[in-house]
Amino acid sequence: MTAGSPSVLRIGAVGAGRMGAQHIENMMNTRFVEVAAICTPMEHELEWSKKTAPDAKLYKDYDDLLKDQNVDAVWLSSPTALHKEQVFKALEAGKHVFCEKPLAMDPKDAWEVYHKAEEYPNLKVACGFPRRFAPAFLEAAKRIRNGELGEIISIKNTCSDMYNPSEEFSKYIKVSGGIFLDMNIHCIDASLYLLSQEKEKKPVRAYATGSTKVYPHFADYGDVDNAYGLVDFDDGTIVSVFGSRDNQHGHQTSVEIYGSKANLTLHADPRSLAVDIHDKNGSRLVNAKDQMALFSQAYADEVAAFRDWVLKGGETPYNLKDSAKAVSIGQALQHSVRNRIPVTIESD
Hints:
This protein has 348 residues and is α/β, with parallel strands linked by helices. It has 2 domains: 9-127, Rossmann fold (3-Layer(aba) Sandwich), CATH 3.40.50.720; 132-299 and 325-344, Dihydrodipicolinate Reductase, domain 2. It has 12 helices and 15 strands. It has helices spanning 18-28, 43-52, 62-66, 83-92, 107-118, 135-145, 167-175, 179-182, 185-196, 291-294, 296-312, 320-339, and strands at residues 9-14, 33-39, 57-59, 73-76, 96-100, 125-128, 152-162, 203-211, 226-233, 238-247, 252-259, 263-266, 271-279, 282-287, 343-344. The two termini are 35 Å apart.
């Protein structure tokens, strides 16, 4: 830690819903991180915050939080539609920013956030993609950097969420932005992270198709429940993405990286524990219920990584340009699956 730098990162958490609550709990379990304040307009979230973080100052208004001199950084777990405005205001107030994915729904907004952050070189702005902190992905990145795979030819991603027939889930899907912007954007960002270990590559074209065999009403939202996407890059590299909303056994993520010298497979099975069960029903493994269970440690590690980046500086897996690229790719794939046409990816 440099001389004169603060020893604790004081965070103002914005939003205490499903993701926000998980982040707040991770912050409270991370050394040299203080949950200094929590901001939410929702009464039930304020009640939860009082019980969970009794020392945190509570706000209903985001602008009031930004005036708090005991807050060094804001952690945005708010609706995506608010991200751009909230990031802008935080930077103008002199706060570091962690923003949940996606950075925005619209690529234009995402790139405006990226360029706004460039205007504040002394402030850190990160977008939350926990796979960048998962051991398997860190190991793969190291091997790519070392040249063990040779030239990367393609990356194949699979990401499937557990079947959820609830009305609440359908309401969420309606405003989620679509399968590629909501769920598979994790695959897109992870691919950008892995590819960047070799060199920066520019996505140029997207193709996608999908179906609504499980949730027919998703079509009313311009979305699908199962989808395949392909992304071409300027050097000929291909990234494929498969996403499903109807896995019966829980969440599953897997990645296959094909190089000219070697291949890597990450998360080949969906186990959440190194436990196999053998009984009268046969043999089976313990599955992760959702992505947060499979990557629980990575979600915790990204808090520590953000703390270290703000307090100490230096290199970090966070990459805001990739976060903006991911929105451009995700939106292009979403447009392609809705219209069944190839789409040129508009970068910055």
